[in-house]
Amino acid sequence: MQKRPTYEELEQKIKVLEEEALKGTKAEEALKRAGEELERRVQGDRTARLVRSTEQLKREIQARKQAEESLKQSEKRLWSILNTMTDFCCIVSKDYRIQFMNNALRERFGNQTGNICYKAFFDRESPCPWNKSGSVQEGKTVKWEHFLPKLRGTFEIVDSPIINNDGTISKLGIWRDISERKRMEKELRSAHQKMRATFDAIRDNINVVDLDFNLTDVNDALIKAFGLPVDQSVLGRKCFDVLKGRKDICPDCAVADAYRTKAPVCRTSTSEDEVSTGGRSFEISTYPIMDDDGNITGAVEFGRDITERKDAEEALRKARNELERRVKERTAEVSTINKELKLEIEERKQAKEHIHHLTQQLMKAQENERRSLSRKLHDLVGQDLSALKIGLDTLFDDQPQAPAEAKQRMSKLSKALEGAIIAVRDLAYDLRPYGLDQLGLVQTVRRYCEEFSLKSGVEVDFFSVGMDGLEMDFDTKIILYRLIQEGLNNVKKHADTSHVTVRLIGVSTKIILRIRDGGKGFDVEERVAGAMKEKRMGLLSMEEMVNLLGGKITIESRPMQGTRIFIGIPSKEKKSGTKENHIDR
Q1: CB within 8 A of 264, min separation 6: which ones?
Q2: pTM above 0.90, yes or no
Q3: Cα separation of 550 and 358, whole Å?
Q4: In whole angstroms, what separates CA 474 from the centre of its chain?
């Protein structure tokens, strides 16, 4: 059990406690005074610093607001720019989620914001193997090209990193469709290949130089002609060094002339050129190359090997000289032969004229003979036969007792004699158509055609126009009559037809005679050849008669297609007061 303290001990402890309490009160007051002093000092410094901090904070807040506003405006402009672009633009997060799509991409795929890019754009279940997200996450901008099957085109893709507020990196992708450019590049490469192939296939030597006379291109023909290395290591070297072995520009440089005149320059190779090409000659054409502004950027030279041509020209010159020598010799011979030929032609011409004259005289003699025979038949034989018929008809007039049998026999003889009289009269008429003098050509021919139809059974369709106003001598009339007569006789003998057309037309100073039938026809060449061989004069006599009048005859015929005879004769205008020149006069 604890011992209880005594009163004195308690009183002593109270005094100690009172002393400690007194000390604590003093300390508390001192502490209070010190705290008040400290508070006073601190209050003054803190207020000043706080005011300064507040002002600085206000300025920072204002600057941040301005920066945020500017950022908002920049972001707004950026989105506006991205949306107005025709290229496809999108922002994709690290986990392939679409954060932004521009209008062009939205039109193509619809609004896919928030969806996974490889699913929305390419219907894939995993990231595209061609994506460059790894490089973008490393902070690199990547530019590449790729054919996108779903978009059916080749795109130039630029992927750039974008740092988000939380420090993560998203990818800004810009897809530009370069399919047309790729197609044009392919065509350009193909065209370049074709041009290169054409360039090398040209047999002329070709070299291209720049303004400093450096070779920029040569074709295979030039490489072979000058023995240059095929690796084109000469490109970039001076043309006069490579092609001429010179250290300076050639004195007669065509390239320099083309640069100076801005016009093509053509010349032939010099002896210096031929030394470098093994003695071969070239025709060199130089053309300046100009840009769109008309400034010269270079020149192209074409060198055509004309060695064979020069050799051929030299051979041709020698041959021409030899030919001229021979021509002179031959000219002298030809001159002699020509004189002889002229004499022969003149003799033939005279002979032809003589034959023509003889033929004309023969026809005149023939017409005269026909006229004489016609007159004798008509005036003598015809009259005698008529008198004989009258005698026979009146023989028994004074003998009424004559036997009936004798009278009947006499009647038969009279009729036979009448037929003979008609035959003689027709023969006389055929030999000499008296109607030409009294009736004229047209009426005489019409009468003949009618009588021909009655006797032959062949219908003749005769028509004439324009003949009344023409003046014709008797030669023309009788020959036209004989032509129609011969034509109709040929139809009767050979055509085997029942109809023939005859047209006699006077046109200006020309007489046209056409005879056409629908008979069996013939081969004209064979018929003419046969006529000459067999001495049949039908067609040949017609041709000769036409020639006598200075006309032309055309015969057209084919087997089973009929025959057409066309005769054109110049009409002779008769001067007033002149008389007809008859053949029989």
Answers
A1: 258, 285, 286, 287, 288
A2: no
A3: 16
A4: 63
67/10 same-domain check: yes
Q: Are 186 and 105 in contact (CB under 8 A)?
A: no
Supply the pLDDT for residue 503: 94
Residues 363 and 463 in one domain: no
pLDDT higher than 80, residue 37: no
Q: What angle separates helix 382-393 from helix 404-431, to the nearest 10 degrees?
A: 160
Three-state SS at 61:
helix
Which tens digit of pLDDT belongs to each residue from 206-241? Answer: 899 999 999 999 988 888 888 888 777 888 899 888
Q: Is the domain of 443 the same as that of 566?
A: yes
Q: What are the start-end ranges of the E strands in 178-295?
A: 205-210, 215-218, 265-268, 282-290
- Sign (positive or negative) of CA dihedral 370, 374, 377, 379: negative
149 and 133 Cβ atoms separated by less than 8 Å: no
Same domain, 423 and 489: no
Bridge partners for 285 per DSSP = 266, 302
Average pLDDT of 118-140? Answer: 85
* Encoded amino acid at 393, one letter: D
Supply φ then ψ for residue 233, to 5 degrees: -70, -10
Counting Cα atoms < 13 Å in the Cβ hemisphere of 346 gives 6
Q: Are residues 526 and 449 in the same domain?
A: yes
142 compared with 526, residue with greater pLDDT: 142
- DSSP state at residue 166: T
**Among 231, 206, 366, CA closest to 300:** 206
Nearest alpha-carbon partner for 134 in 169, 84, 99, 165: 169
Tokens representing 103 are 């209008």
- Per-residue pLDDT at 531: 60
Mode of pairing for the β-strands spanning 142-148 and 499-507: unpaired
Range of the domain at 269: 202-305
pLDDT digits (tens, 9 = 90+) for 435-470: 677 778 888 889 889 988 998 899 999 999 988 878
Kindly report the number of other CB atoms within 10 A of residue 551's CB atom. Answer: 21
| 147 & 220 share domain | no
Tell me the two tokens of residue 302.
Answer: 């074409």
3-state secondary structure 169-210: EEEEEEEEECHHHHHHHHHHHHHHHHHHHHHHHCCCEEEEEE
**Beta carbons of 428 and 476 less than 8 angstroms apart:** no
Q: How far is CA 260 from CA 216, 238, 264, 265, 294, in A?
A: 20, 19, 10, 11, 13
Q: Quick one: how far is CA 136 from the chain centroid?
A: 59
Q: How far is CA 308 from the centre of its chain?
A: 34
Report the alpha-carbon angle 36-41-42, nearest 5. 95
Across 88-97, 341-350, 419-428, the highest mean pLDDT is recorded for: 88-97
User: Is 327 among the domain residues?
Assistant: no
